[in-house]
Specification:
7 helices, binds zinc ion, about 240 residues, globular
């Protein structure tokens, strides 16, 4: 899509404020409940995937190796922006560098959800992103959902690749791995992770029966323009 359109969109997003310290109890509960939902709905199988929320000075992220339905609020790990975590906490998810890099690169990101959702992962194994086969790709702020080049899980290289693939958009795939979605809130990031999987599912189905027609840049620019008012009921003034 046109870079100017991307900039306008990003520019409209207010910088996400970190959660105040007193709110972290609720934040911890929310992370666990969305993690349980992610697992029980099958969005990310088993213990796979991880979730984080920006907090003052860093982020709160799910721990490694603990099933979501067994996770307690104290199991979540606070990692500071310098990459350090206070002693006495659980070991954070191996994806912590990726999450932290996204918060540092994008001031508007308040939460990150990483999944190994079925169809997004299948596409990532072909090392292909999701092009503008459907206009709803624009919901992620551009004319495609890119796939980050492969790097081993947990590495700083993967974190760098993900930041680049995400760019100003709200989701990307990770080659031979899965998907990442960002949001101002955890709910938004989670819903985007589910929406990426829905698009990936539609795209893989289309690929299975033929060669999908990809919308032009011009067509997607029109959608992106129209999305500026998409779903904003309050802006529609009723005539009296
Ligand atoms: Zn993963």
């Amino acid at each position: 899509m046109r870079r100017t359109a991307v900039r306008r969109r990003v520019g409209r997003v207010l910088q996400k404020r970190a959660e105040p310290a007193g709110a972290t109890t609720n934040v911890r509960g929310d992370i666990i409940s969305f993690g349980q939902r992610m697992s029980s709905s099958g969005l990310s199988p088993g213990k796979s995937g991880n979730l984080s929320v920006r907090v003052d000075g860093g982020m709160l992220i799910t721990p490694t190796g603990i099933a979501y339905h067994e996770m307690r609020p104290t199991d979540l790990v606070e990692v500071r922006f310098d990459g350090r975590a206070a002693a006495g906490q659980r070991v954070p998810s191996s994806a912590w560098r990726l999450h932290l890099a996204l918060y540092k690169a994008r001031a508007d990101v308040g939460a990150v959800v990483h999944t190994h959702s079925l169809n997004a992962t299948a596409l990532s194994c072909l090392r292909r992103g999701i092009p503008a086969f459907h206009y709803m790709v624009a919901e992620f702020g551009g004319d495609r959902i890119a796939c980050a080049p492969y790097a081993i899980y947990g590495s700083a290289e993967l974190a760098r690749n993900a930041v680049k693939a995400l760019g100003p958009r709200e989701a990307c795939l990770l080659a031979n791995h899965g998907a990442v979605a960002a949001g101002e809130t955890l709910r938004q990031a989670y819903e985007r992770a589910a929406a990426v999987e829905a698009l990936a599912s539609q795209y893989t189905r289309a690929l299975a029966i033929g060669r999908p027609k990809i919308l032009s840049r011009r067509a997607m620019a029109q959608v992106l323009e129209k999305f500026k008012t998409y779903g904003k009921q309050a802006e529609v003034k009723a005539k009296s």
